[in-house]
Amino acid sequence: HYPTICKWLSFLADNEALLFFKKEAIKIIQKRMNDGS
């Protein structure tokens, strides 16, 4: 019934997941850099 809203919500959900994974990846990279030095 509301395809645009559904698309928008799924788009937001994808962005939230991407942001979360990006933050986690940055944490892991920083940890490795700290361990290396």
TrEMBL record:
It comes from the Eukaryota. This is Uncharacterized protein.
